[in-house]
């Protein structure tokens, strides 16, 4: 049936996205490839949005669709797929929300006096560092921390949004598959 093929296609697409989210989140722990003290790492990394949200929660959905879907009857495949897609949707949204917060708030960095702080927090969007690259020189250590955070949080944000959309499509697809199969089996001879 068409809904089964769509479910498999979405599962295959979500698998590498989840892997990229996990890698991106792990890279945020090592700004510019450096190993820092735990207190010197941006706090929004500790919400594990790429590892837990866009990674594990979405990977479970795609892993199920690729490996165990044939063990169940079609209506139960679709129903279980809907439940797992809802879980994946929640993971994608979780990743997108915390990644956007990481982008807006900016990184934790040393401004030159040896003290790590968030120099860009509590700024209005009008004065946000994302729109004013000349303010990036405020952060002295770790080197390139602003670009590092912008790129990785942007990747996580994009992955979270894409995963949420794909999982929402799968919810619709699974419900259609469940209802149509139930309807067809009820009225068939």
From TrEMBL:
Transmembrane portions of the chain: 12-30, 36-58, 79-104, 145-169
InterPro entries per record: L6_membrane
Keyword Transmembrane helix belongs to the record: yes
Topology class, membrane: Multi-pass membrane protein
Primary location: membrane
A Pfam entry, by short name: L6_membrane
GO-annotated cellular components: membrane
UniProt KW keywords: Membrane, Transmembrane, Transmembrane helix
Cellular compartments annotated: Membrane
Homology family: Belongs to the L6 tetraspanin family.
The protein's name in its UniProt record: Transmembrane 4 L six family member 1
């Amino acid at each position: 049936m068409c809904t089964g093929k769509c479910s498999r296609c979405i599962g295959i697409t979500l698998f590498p996205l989840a892997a990229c989210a996990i890698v991106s989140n792990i890279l945020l722990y090592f700004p510019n490839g450096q190993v820092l003290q735990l207190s010197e790492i941006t706090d929004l990394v500790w919400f594990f949005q790429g590892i837990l949200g866009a990674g594990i929660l979405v990977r479970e959905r795609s892993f199920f669709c690729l490996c165990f879907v044939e063990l169940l009857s079609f209506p139960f495949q679709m129903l279980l797929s809907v439940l797992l897609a809802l879980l994946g949707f929640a993971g994608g949204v979780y990743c997108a929300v915390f990644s956007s917060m990481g982008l807006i708030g900016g990184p934790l960095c040393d401004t030159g006096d040896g003290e790590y702080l968030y120099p860009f927090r509590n700024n209005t969007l009008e004065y946000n560092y994302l729109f004013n690259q000349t303010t990036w020189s405020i952060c002295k250590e770790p080197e390139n921390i602003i670009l590092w955070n912008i790129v990785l949080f942007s990747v996580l944000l994009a992955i979270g949004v894409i995963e949420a959309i794909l999982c929402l499509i799968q919810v619709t697809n699974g419900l259609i598959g469940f209802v149509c199969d139930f309807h067809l089996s009820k009225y068939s001879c």
